[in-house]
């Protein structure tokens, strides 16, 4: 099975993430234009419940499998890899069955009593069959990540999005005449089909390239693998805790938003519409750079785990520094562009710029979100999943508290929700950094901090100048695209000048190797 270096694996994941994000944006635009703000609101209100149940189903095993398989590979122990796979398959199979049945029975109560909109019942029921599919996919993803082979899951991501975007318009149009709630359910069905086809692909690759046979008496093998169970769940449970906190917070979020905005005197229909704008229009833009940071995080766990297993502490520090530097570089340009060009971006994408004030408010704070992901991955790779979990809990409690206090105030309304989410992002990132500093004396040099400030400042100045030119000429989408291209080219040149990306790193990539040597 082909193994990639840290940067090679990251680049493969980034390219796949770029493609899937682009396809995902097309998918969102199609859904938004077909279903409207209310339909998007129903769709987005149902998703947090799904994410919470998916987190429970996976038990945090993808990260744990990735770390333990990487360690076993470093020690050349194929039997341990086999034990890891069997334990994981048994655990996720049981949880997926339990939570699929549970979600089906709980859906009416969740829709009517918690989400305060009975129409969310249909999307919740439509999405429940996805849990067993996700359970098996999570085990395979963790296995390939631990092998430091990022190609299978990258191809699977692209396949999943292609299937989803191919099906979503058909199912939404088919069911829209019956109501927006059925259209939202149709969008969920396309998600299931995409996940299923991508799972079939990963199973094919696994069967073709596996080096260990897993045909055995599962439960008798499980009894003899107690140490493996303990090793897996020492990471999996705190990781589940962190994700569960996030998923439970996201589950409570639409409920708390609906209740708080009701206290502020905003109707249920308008609250759903505003929440749809925030989560359906603003969030996809804010989370756009996370395909890069997420890719770095996935590749970081096995890389740090391997370095730690080989007692190479200098490499551990270097990898964390490298991932933070690259994550910040990917997020800084997004922050500047979203702040300066919020109105034209929303107008060209969704046909309205109503939510531009929310985007400008949140974008500067979300630059810390792009650094947060690799910090959390580093904590998990260093067996510090528990501190990461507690940090997530503290951040979630603070976010929900601020959300209720501000959103229920008529002076803030939906802007109070945006402020609360920004507070949560900043707090958790700072706590993760403090945990790493305490555990391994990790710190960011003052020189790098100065570079970060310079990168943002210079890009903002040039971006403001380009924006002024754009607005003085007759604005159109072609001129807008050329304006963004000019800013991105300047930004890339600045990255090299400030050494956010170095020649030594590019040489490690096959595409650049022959040109730069």
From TrEMBL:
Keywords recorded for this protein, A-Z: Cell membrane, Membrane, Transmembrane, Transmembrane helix
Compartments it resides in: Cell membrane
Membrane topology label: Multi-pass membrane protein
InterPro entries tied to this protein: PG_synth_SpoVB, Poly_Biosynth_Transport, Polysacc_synth, Spore_V_B
The keyword Membrane is annotated on this UniProt entry: yes
Chief location: membrane
Entry's transmembrane regions: 40-63, 84-109, 121-143, 155-176, 182-206, 282-305, 326-350, 356-375, 412-436, 448-466, 478-498
Protein name as it appears in the record: Stage V sporulation protein B
Gene behind the chain: spoVB
């Amino acid at each position: 099975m082909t193994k990639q270096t840290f940067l090679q694996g990251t680049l493969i994941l980034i390219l796949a993430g770029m493609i899937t994000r682009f396809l995902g944006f097309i998918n969102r635009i199609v859904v938004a234009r077909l279903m409207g703000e209310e339909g998007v609101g129903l769709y987005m209100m149902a998703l947090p419940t799904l994410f919470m149940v998916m987190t429970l189903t996976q038990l945090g095993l993808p990260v744990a499998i990735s770390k333990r398989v990487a360690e076993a590979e470093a020690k050349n122990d194929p039997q341990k890899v086999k034990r890891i796979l069997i334990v994981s398959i048994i655990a996720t199979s049981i949880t997926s069955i339990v939570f699929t049945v549970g979600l089906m029975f709980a859906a009416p109560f969740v829709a009517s009593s918690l989400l305060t909109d009975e129409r969310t019942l249909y999307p919740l029921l439509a999405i429940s069959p996805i849990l067993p599919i996700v359970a098996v996919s999570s085990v395979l993803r963790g296995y390939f990540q631990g092998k430091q082979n990022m190609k299978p899951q990258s191809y699977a991501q692209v396949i999943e999005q292609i299937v989803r975007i191919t099906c979503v318009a058909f199912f939404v149009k088919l069911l829209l005449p019956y109501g927006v709630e059925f259209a939202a359910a149709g969008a969920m069905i396309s998600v299931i089909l995409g996940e299923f086809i991508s799972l079939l692909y990963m199973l094919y690759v696994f069967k073709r390239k596996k080096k260990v046979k897993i045909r055995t008496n599962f439960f008798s093998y499980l009894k003899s693998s107690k140490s493996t169970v303990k090793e897996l769940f020492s990471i999996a449970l705190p990781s589940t805790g962190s994700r569960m906190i996030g998923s439970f917070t996201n589950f409570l979020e639409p409920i708390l938003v609906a209740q708080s905005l009701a206290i502020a005197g905003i109707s249920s229909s308008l609250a759903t519409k505003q929440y749809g704008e925030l989560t359906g229009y603003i969030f996809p833009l804010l989370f756009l750079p996370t395909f890069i940071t997420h890719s770095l995080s996935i590749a970081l766990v096995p890389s740090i785990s391997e370095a730690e297993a080989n007692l190479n502490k200098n490499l551990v520090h270097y990898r964390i520094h490298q991932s933070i530097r690259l994550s910040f570089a990917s997020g800084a340009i997004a922050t500047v562009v979203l702040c300066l060009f919020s109105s034209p971006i929303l107008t060209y994408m969704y046909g309205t710029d109503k939510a531009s004030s929310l985007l400008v408010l949140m974008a500067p704070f979300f630059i810390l979100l792009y650094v947060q992901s690799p910090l959390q991955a580093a904590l998990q790779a260093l067996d510090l999943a528990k501190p990461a979990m507690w940090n997530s809990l503290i951040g979630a409690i603070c976010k929900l508290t601020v959300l209720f206090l501000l959103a229920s105030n008529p002076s803030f309304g939906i802007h109070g929700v945006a402020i609360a989410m920004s507070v949560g992002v900043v707090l958790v990132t700072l706590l993760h950094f403090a945990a790493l500093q305490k555990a391994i004396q990790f710190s960011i040099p003052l020189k790098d901090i100065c570079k970060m400030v310079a990168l943002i400042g210079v890009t903002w100045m040039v971006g403001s100048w380009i924006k002024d030119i754009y607005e003085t000429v007759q604005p159109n989408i072609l001129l807008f695209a050329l304006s963004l291209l000019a800013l991105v080219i300047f930004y890339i040149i600045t990255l090299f000048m400030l050494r956010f990306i170095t020649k030594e790193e590019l040489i490690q990539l096959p595409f650049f190797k022959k040109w730069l040597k």
